[in-house]
Backbone:
């Protein structure tokens, strides 16, 4: 048999073997490789390459290949079971910045120069190290950063803003075809949908996507993008009317001369104000 | 417009809000949200009752403005 045919068969066989063996190693993501994972990967690759090129004896090579896949697989299994093994194999995270102060000795331990630290912080969009409350070097070599409270992005929680619960809208029409199942799940039917479409002034066959949110408001996208679809305004209108009624009550309270009626109007206005505060996050979704 | 007419208008607006809330409640899937809506519906109901009481008093004092 000529040499090239030998290499062809060996390579094809090894390709399949390598594929199966690497599958056995599990589904660890390549982005989360530790240094040890990297070495294992390189060694397996080199062994496969040398065997397929015929640089080493086939049996010797295969033995090495099996060892280099069996051992890591074994160690991964062990590391799932035991924390100590895990710490040895995958390494522990190193705290680089704690309470806003850079820990120089830990930096030395991780063989990190100040430039490395700064560049890693910049990758996390942190250009000012004074903004960092806590930073950790993960076993994979990434730096995870917790910003100081006053530098963190604004969330509704930080400004004490009440927000409505996000609800998953149901898609009730696709490509002009009505989907009965999601409609039924919302407790609605085709008749309702046709009424809503008529209200919006849209022909059913012109609808590309239609979604219903939990309050029964219909959102449409049409094939004909020149047509402007009216946005559902029910909730906005409701809130506006409510605010008007509250203002009315206040006005009556100011206008009346009867102390009894004044009290009643004041109370009503207060109750309506409570209702507005309650409903506002729900209505402004 | 007379005061009784204005109050009647407010009551009518509130009744409209009630109706819209009812429509939303009947569709709303989430239990918690529905509870919130029902609570607020009851609050508005109490306001309507108060205002209606006031209207009957106003009509008693000034019978010439009775009705719409």
Residues:
């Amino acid at each position: 048999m000529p040499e090239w045919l030998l290499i062809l068969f060996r390579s094809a066989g090894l390709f399949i073997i390598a594929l199966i063996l690497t599958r056995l190693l599990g589904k660890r993501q390549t982005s989360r490789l530790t240094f040890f994972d990297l070495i294992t990967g390189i060694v397996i690759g080199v062994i496969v390459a040398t065997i397929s090129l015929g640089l080493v004896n086939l049996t010797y090579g295969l033995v090495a290949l099996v060892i280099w896949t069996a051992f890591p697989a074994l160690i991964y299994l062990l590391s799932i079971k035991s924390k100590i093994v895990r710490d040895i194999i995958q390494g522990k995270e190193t705290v680089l910045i704690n309470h806003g102060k850079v820990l120089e000795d830990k930096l030395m331990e991780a063989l990190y120069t100040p430039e490395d630290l700064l560049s890693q912080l910049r990758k996390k969009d942190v250009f000012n190290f004074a903004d960092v409350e806590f930073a950790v070097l993960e076993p994979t070599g990434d730096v995870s950063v917790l910003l100081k409270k006053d530098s963190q992005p604004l969330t509704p929680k930080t400004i004490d803003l009440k927000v409505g619960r996000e609800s998953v809208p149901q898609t009730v029409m696709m490509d002009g075809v009505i989907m009965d199942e999601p409609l039924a799940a919302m407790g609605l039917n085709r008749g309702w949908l046709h009424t809503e479409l008529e209200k919006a002034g849209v022909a059913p066959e012109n609808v590309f996507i239609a979604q219903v949110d939990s309050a029964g408001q219909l959102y449409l996208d049409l094939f004909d993008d020149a047509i402007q679809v009216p946005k559902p305004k029910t909730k906005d209108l409701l809130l506006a009317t409510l605010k008007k009624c509250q203002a009315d009550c206040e006005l009556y309270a100011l206008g009346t001369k009867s102390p009894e009626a004044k009290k009643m109007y004041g109370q009503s206005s207060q109750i309506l104000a409570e209702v507005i505060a309650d409903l506002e996050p729900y209505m402004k979704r | 417009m007379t005061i009784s007419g204005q109050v009647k208008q407010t009551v009518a607006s509130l009744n409209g809000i009630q109706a819209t809330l009812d429509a939303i409640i009947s569709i709303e899937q989430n239990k918690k949200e529905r509870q919130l809506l029902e609570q607020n519906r009851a609050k508005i109901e109490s306001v309507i009752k108060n205002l209606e009481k006031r209207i009957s008093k106003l009509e008693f004092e000034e019978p010439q403005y009775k009705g719409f």
Q: What stands out?
A: The two ends of chain A are 74 Å apart (CA to CA). The mean pLDDT of chain A is 85.
